[in-house]
Amino acid sequence: MSRVLHYRLYGLPEHQLERIHEQFEALAGARAWRCGQPWIASGQSRGLFEMEYFRHLKKDEGPRLSAAGFVKMTGDETDALIITIFVRDLSAEYRVWASIRDQDHPLAKLRKLEFESGRLPGGQSLEDVLAKRPVIKKVEGERIFFYPPTFRLHSQGPPSPEWAYALCGIRAYAPTLLEAEQEALKILRGFGHLGA
Fold first, then answer.
1. Global confidence as pTM
2. Residues forming beta bridges with residue 46, ordered by sequence position
3. Of 127, 145, 167, which residue sits at a domain end?
4. Host H or E run for residue 99
5. 47 and 39 in contact (C-beta within 8 Å)?
6. Do residues 184 and 138 lie in contact, with contact meaning Cβ atoms separated by under 8 Å?
7. Could you list the residue range(s) of the whole structural domain that residue 143 is in?
8. 152 and 103, same structural domain?
């Protein structure tokens, strides 16, 4: 059975749901996904599957549920991390409660995350609980390393305010994981053209 990542948003005003749908559509088109493209269902959904999915969830979870979705994972932790950061950012932007459930996540502490206005229940940021080691993505036989902002190359070094990435002996920084991934893939394609 495939690993499934479930995400939910609670307490959104009705007039903001259209923008949430637009933001999910923009995320879905922002990169190539190994998992299915992220999507969201709400009371404003028009597709039959989305309407029924949301109706059943709302019946189970109550009136505070505003929007929900899920994706089937195919082994790319970068997909899961980007979706997690995206949901966290929505929670912060709209100052609402959000949750992510990933029953089969390899790290037990990341199997269920809840955000209130973008922060974890104890007031920590997501980056505070992320593993302090790189996320590795394999593309075309090459490994790309993504380092969260809390990662320290040396124990005495300060954390970076940005995501670092490294591949083919090159190390650079980008403001977000999504941008770091896009830049790393451009570099990889460039090296591919040089070697062709």
1. 0.79
2. none
3. 127
4. strand 97-101
5. no
6. no
7. 131-195
8. no
